[in-house]
Amino acid sequence: TLGRYFPPDTKEKQQLRMTKLCDPPESGLSPFLITLLLAVLLAEYLIGIIANGFITAIHAAEWVQNKAVSTSGRILVFLCISRIALQSFMMLEITISSNSLSFYYEDAVYYTFKISFIFLNFCTLWFAAWLRFFYFVKIANFSYPLFLKLRWKISGLMPWLLWLSVFTSFSHSMFCINICTMYCNNSFPIHSFNSTKKKYFSETNVVSLAFFYNLGIVVPLIMFILAATLLILSLKRHTLHMGSNATGSRDPSMEAHMGAIKATSYFLILYIFNAVALFIYLSNIFDIYSLWNILWQIIMAAYPGSHSILLIQDNPGLRRAWKWLQLRLHLYPKECTL
């Protein structure tokens, strides 16, 4: 059922697709459970928008005040803006599809949402991978000449790599659209073709579509896993070296290294879970209204907010700004009553 991402061209085929997608008995879920799951999705979107909006605001203020921003801050701005856009589009899509299916399945509306979903998901995967790669290059302790040269040049290369990721994600999403349009057109009976040809064209397009969809997931996933794993190994080796030279007292540097190892491990687990959920969701293994399909959506919706919260906790500057904001929000009602 990969055709659900991009509706057929004719009105008759759209109505056939809508009837198939919106048939309540096929979902097997009660209206209460569907409402509950949608409420969970909306709550996750709101948390993600707030957390990413906070990070964006802090770095944007730094950018305006200092007329410059650090390389890691630039990557975070790209990452958070793409996540805010993604979750805003998903919230809007849920709202429209729940209230006006006829409008939602208009070609322009449907294509806009699905193109945005693919493009912004690929962007967030790439930006998160570049953030982890940048931390790996700057923090890891390797003495290879190529690695040292990369460390020296990475800050200058990163803006170009970020914009290259945007271009790659856009090109990838547009290419997937063309393949998916071919699939949708060939997956309906055409009397001039025999059944063998129809089956061949449909299977070829499904395989091609799945391949190009997942190519946009696998490449940044591999890069993230390699960068995070090598960073953990480097930190672990340095921690063991410090432990062998410790005098018995608590070493703040060792505690900082252990904290970095834990944080990187958490980031790696979250990234893998999100990539696997996106992989399964785009592969259309489950029915659109099945419980498993909605659960994969919940996992994908939870990732941007949870990852951003961990970024706030792991970054001393963001953590201080968050505590200051909480204090101001706590004192604001008291100040208004005075």
TrEMBL record:
<feature type="transmembrane region" description="Helical">
    <location>
        <begin position="75"/>
        <end position="96"/>
    </location>
</feature>
<keyword id="KW-0919">Taste</keyword>
<keyword id="KW-0297">G-protein coupled receptor</keyword>
<feature type="transmembrane region" description="Helical">
    <location>
        <begin position="263"/>
        <end position="282"/>
    </location>
</feature>
<feature type="transmembrane region" description="Helical">
    <location>
        <begin position="32"/>
        <end position="55"/>
    </location>
</feature>
<dbReference type="GO" id="GO:0004930">
    <property type="term" value="F:G protein-coupled receptor activity"/>
</dbReference>
<keyword id="KW-0812">Transmembrane</keyword>
<comment type="similarity">
    <text>Belongs to the G-protein coupled receptor T2R family.</text>
</comment>
<dbReference type="GO" id="GO:0033038">
    <property type="term" value="F:bitter taste receptor activity"/>
</dbReference>
<dbReference type="InterPro" id="IPR007960">
    <property type="entry name" value="TAS2R"/>
</dbReference>
<keyword id="KW-0807">Transducer</keyword>
<protein>
    <recommendedName>
        <fullName>Taste receptor type 2</fullName>
    </recommendedName>
</protein>
<dbReference type="Pfam" id="PF05296">
    <property type="entry name" value="TAS2R"/>
</dbReference>
<keyword id="KW-0675">Receptor</keyword>
<keyword id="KW-0472">Membrane</keyword>
<keyword id="KW-0716">Sensory transduction</keyword>
<dbReference type="GO" id="GO:0005886">
    <property type="term" value="C:plasma membrane"/>
</dbReference>
<feature type="transmembrane region" description="Helical">
    <location>
        <begin position="294"/>
        <end position="312"/>
    </location>
</feature>
<keyword id="KW-1133">Transmembrane helix</keyword>
<feature type="transmembrane region" description="Helical">
    <location>
        <begin position="157"/>
        <end position="184"/>
    </location>
</feature>
<keyword id="KW-0325">Glycoprotein</keyword>
<feature type="transmembrane region" description="Helical">
    <location>
        <begin position="211"/>
        <end position="233"/>
    </location>
</feature>
<feature type="transmembrane region" description="Helical">
    <location>
        <begin position="116"/>
        <end position="137"/>
    </location>
</feature>
